[in-house]
Every structure is written in C-alpha cells, then in structure tokens.
Amino acid sequence: MSENTLRHNAKRVLRAQRIETPSWAYGNSGTRFKVFAKAGVPRTPEEKIDDAACVHEFTGVAPSLALHIPWDQVDDYPALARYAESRGIRLGAINPNVFQDNEYRLGSICHPDSAIRAKAVDHLLECVEIGSQTGSGVLSVWLADGTNYLGQDDIRARQDRLAEGLAKVYAAMPEGMRLLLEYKFFEPHFYTMDVPDWGTAFAHCLRLGERAQVLVDTGHHAPGTNIEFLVAVLLREQRLGGFHFNSRNYADDDLMVGAADPFQLFRILHEIHGAGGLAPEAGIEFMLDQCHNLEPSVPALIRSILNVQEATAKALLVDRDALRDAQRDGDVLGAHAVVMDAFSTDVRPLLAEVRQDQGLDPDPLGAFYRSGYQEHIEAERIGGGLGWGA
Ligand code: RM4
Ligand code: MN
Ligand code: MN
C-alpha cells in the first residue's frame, strides 16, 4: 500500500476516533497514604463537565464524560445531561459504585447475605435508570468483590450469586444499553476476586447475552500478561466492549496511558485496527480510567489523549498488505519489520495535520497552557475540590 494511501486512511480514522474521560480523574486522588489537594479542582459535577469540555475543546476527540455514582450524584440527571450538552459534550458510561458502603465489607452482589446482595443490585438498577435518563448507552460494572482467605467463602456459590445479580441488571437494561463487565486480578481482595480475569468476565457475558461485553482495564493484569492477545480473542468473539486505558509499572497504578509502556499501547491498538475495531460502528469504547495524584488533571488528560492518538496513528500506518505478504511467505523478520517501521514513525506531524484540518490548534497542550484555563480555575475554585470517593 502506498504511503499516501496509508496516511490518507489514517487521517480519516483519526478524525473519527473518540476517547471518553472519567469524572473521577478531574478530582483529587491519591494513594492509601495521602491525597494531596490540588488547586483548581472541581467542586461540583458541573465543574467536572466544564473541565471535560475544556479537554474536548483542545483535542476535538473527547466529547463525553463517564460518571461514577454516587460520586457524581445529583438530584436531576436530565438537567446534568443538558448542562453537558450546553458545554458541547455528553454524559458517557455510568459506573456504579458498590464498594464504599460499610455493608460491602464481604462483597456486593456476591455477598453471602441476600439482603446486602439486594442492596447492591438495587444500586446497579438505579444506575441503569440514571443511564436511561442521561442517554448513556453503557453501564460499566466493576465489582470489588472477593475474599482474602482460603475458606472465607465458597468460590462457586459466589459465582452463582454473581450470575444471578448480573442477570437481574441485564434484564432491566433498555434496548440500546450495553453492560460492560470489568475484571481485575487482585485488590481490594488478595485471595480471590470474583471477576479476576477476562475469562471469567467472558463466561458471564456469554450467559447474559449479546449486550454484555468485557471491559479491559489495561492496569488490571498480572505482570507479563499479553494484553493484545486477549484483546484479539475478545474481538474475534465480538465481546470486547471497551477499555479503561491507563498505564502501570507495578499494580493498578492508574498512571497516564502510554506513559509507562507506549509500545504495549501500540500493540493493543494494532490488534484493534486489524479486527476493524477502530471503526465507530464497531462500538468499542475507548475510555480513560486514571488518577492524577501529582499532576494537574486537565493537561494530564490532554496528554493522555495525545498518547492514545499517537499509538492509534502508528497502528494505522502499519502496511497491512505488506504484512500479510510477509506472513504468508513465512518471512518472520520481514513481517516484524513492517510493524516496527510503523511503530518507529514520528506521527506527531500527521496528527498536527489532522487537527489543523479540523480547525484545532496543532499543539493541544500548548494551546491549553496559553489559554489561561488553569489559572482561571485555580483563582475561581476556592474552597477545596471534590476528591476520590466524594
Ligand atoms: C477500579 C476500577 C474501576 C474504577 C475504580 C475506581 O480499580 O478500575 O474501573 O471505577 O477502580
Ligand atoms: Mn477501571
Ligand atoms: Mn483500576
């Protein structure tokens, strides 16, 4: 394929790509040791929307904001959706939170006590309702359920409770809604997690139905896991619902996507592109799930989006015709070189062109710094902002 054709196609796909930012990334966050308060942090869900609108203004590809309930609880969700619309964005995935009430010490929908399970299911159903009111097509379920000790609870009974709870939620979802089931191999529990891996999530999704798909959080795997492989398998099964992008060095670090390992991000996007998953109609949700403990959130989210765009652009520049020929001929080194050539390309000029074509500043971070937005929110938002868990 000619370089021109590759670049032309890449630009078309990059113009259509969408990346969702998470409301919780705009607030204060920290570790189990300390949450350092940052200046200019949003005090209300509306101010989180303002920040998300700012990220979208400079990047042009982040027109939606994921909510965490109850962190973003309001009395009037349609009004919140209208506010988002007035700022040029929309409300995205609804993330239920069934891990912060005292009753959830032993789990939520997998809890041994049926009354606690019912409470958790009720919250999930409330989130389905919120999603209907905000026009969100995605219910993004992550459960902190699990056990710490051998014998603490019955693994299979917990799987049964999980299936039962999810089935109730799935049955309540309107036609246009999808349930994305997220897995995590450890934390907060350290012996078993009830949804520890993509296989478990996939098995539950298969039972639930077509509108249940797996959500891959890139920070939720054991070291050395080949994420692009499981992404390829899930794509093939049409059960890849989307991503929570972030990067990790050790555990669930929630650092900026592409910071720790831009090559891994490229490898994942190469698989997605190979399966046609970058097309908007493929319905794969590209969401960020990050915590900015040290750095200001808005420029960190802009930077994260640029990192995803750069990895995507490189994946789009892989000459797939040449790759197929090399693979067919058993040309191992040739095939590898085709992919590595794309990875080694500096795609920043291409992305600058894409932005200019769309009337955006070619340098979103520079434009953000020049805009005075950070100074404005730091002066305006006095009185402490929202933090993780609030
Ligand atoms: C979890 C998981 C969820 C996120 C919470 C806050 O580790 O990644 O997606 O909602 O953290
Ligand atoms: Mn996540
Ligand atoms: Mn996580």
CATH topology: TIM Barrel
Molecular shape: globular
Gap between N and C termini: 51 Å
Question: How many E strands?
Answer: 10
Overall average residue pLDDT: 97
Q: Write out the distinct hetero groups bound to the structure.
A: beta-L-rhamnopyranose, manganese (II) ion
Number of helices: 14
Secondary-structure arrangement, i.e. CATH architecture? Alpha-Beta Barrel
Strand proportion, as a percent range, falls in 5-15%
Q: What portion of residues is helical?
A: 40-55%
Assign the structural class, choosing from mainly alpha, mainly beta, alpha/beta, alpha+beta, or little secondary structure.
alpha/beta
User: In order across it, which strands form the biggest sheet?
Assistant: 4-6-8-9-10
Radius of gyration: 21 Å
Kindly report the name of the CATH homologous superfamily: Divalent-metal-dependent TIM barrel enzymes
Oligomer: single chain
Largest sheet: 5 strands, parallel
Order of helices and strands: HEHEHEHEEHEEHEHEHEHHHHHH
Q: Which CATH class applies here?
A: Alpha Beta
General description of the model:
- The chain is α/β, with parallel strands linked by helices.
- The chain has one domain (about 15-310): TIM Barrel, CATH 3.20.20.
- The chain is about 45% helix and about 10% strand.
- The chain has 14 helices and 10 strands.
- It has helices at about 5-15, 45-60, 75-85, 115-135, 155-170, 200-210, 225-235, 260-275, 295-315, 320-330, 330-345, 350-355, 365-370, 375-380; strands spanning about 20, 65-70, 90-95, 140, 145, 180, 190-195, 210-215, 240-245, 285-290.
- It has a 5-stranded parallel sheet. Strands 1-2-3 form a 3-stranded parallel sheet. Strands 5-7 form a two-stranded antiparallel ribbon.
- Helix 1 (about 5-15) packs across helix 12 and helix 7 runs parallel beside helix 8 (about 260-275).
- One manganese (II) ion binds near residues 220, 252 and 289.
